[in-house]
Amino acid sequence: MKTIDKDVLAGYNAGIEKDRLRSGLGLIEFERTKEILRQKLPPAPAVIYDIGGAYGEYSFWLSSLGYEVYLYDLSEKNIEMAREFTTEHPLKAMEVSDARSINRPDESADAVLLFGPLYHIVEYAERQLALTECYRLLKSGGLLFTAAITRYATILWAVMSYGQKNTLLDEPEFYGMIEHEIKTGHHIKNSASKYSGIGRSYFHLPDELKAETKSAGFCNTDVRGILGPVCPYVVNLDEVWKDEVKRESIMRIVRLCEREESIMGISTHLLTISEKGESV
Question: N or C: which end of the chain has fewer CB within 10 A?
């Protein structure tokens, strides 16, 4: 198996994931994902493997609902932070593991969350290894929840912050990077650019993500753009989010538009729900 980009792993081992879901667009991502999980998961105490689950934001929340949760992540720092959690709802396991090889028996999980590996595993064949590993772990009829970053995520971020936080759009080097990214899905930092964001990654188109899950044996895949059209337009989201009425107004729009293919690309984050079983 090929290794994850060293810059990506170094970032996670420096703790960059901490509180990502507690501010900005992470607030919407976290809230809508939890809503979908509540709707789709079998009743507790079903067994859930959170693979690539960072330091366990979803794991500990699901454990508090009565699920039997196992957390796996490639970053030693993320697992270290998970072990520092003080909670009344401990996890069954917290282990440093590669998504392509999880030390659990065949057909032992009712659901698998794969919320990071698909955009950090940059080669198709390696992503298929991660997906087929999830297939192996799931019971018949079990559900796979996958997350991906959309093909236009970097350019949306650059446009949203242009002139305020950066002038990257003025750089030929940055433009060349995002042009290649949009054409191929491969996010590769240009060392000549001032851009210092996420390391080597792969960004999906919605249909492409659906096709990859199908190739791994899954069926009935449902793709959602879980930030909807809100991503580029809501300013001061942290403040707006504190208002219960405004927060629900945002979430209504997200729910309304998340399956609309014509705007799914501007969500920046995708979520799929797939089944291990026969197509219907």
Answer: C
**Cα–Cα separations (whole angstroms), residue 95 to 32, 76, 249:** 26, 9, 38
Torsion region of 125: left, alpha or beta (phi above 0 gives left; psi -120 to 50 gives alpha): alpha
Tokens in use for 158?
Answer: 């650059």
The model's pLDDT over 175-213, given as tens digits with 9 standing for 90+, comes to 999 999 999 999 999 989 999 888 899 999 999 999 999
Q: Dihedral of CA 123/161/165/29: which sign?
A: negative
Q: Cβ contacts of residue 170 below 8 Å, gap of 6+?
A: none
Q: Cα separation of 205 and 74, whole Å?
A: 25
Q: Taking 70 as the threshold, does the pLDDT of residue 1 lie above it?
A: no
Sign of CA dihedral 230, 235, 239, 245: negative
pLDDT of residue 31: 96
Distant-in-sequence, close-in-space partners of 117: CB < 8 Å, separation ≥ 6: 51, 52, 74, 99, 100, 127, 130
For 129-185, what is each residue's pLDDT tens digit? 999 999 999 999 999 999 999 999 999 889 888 877 788 999 999 999 999 999 999
CA 163/CA 2 separation, integer angstroms = 38
Question: How far is Cα 280 from Cα 48, in angstroms, rounded to an integer?
Answer: 24
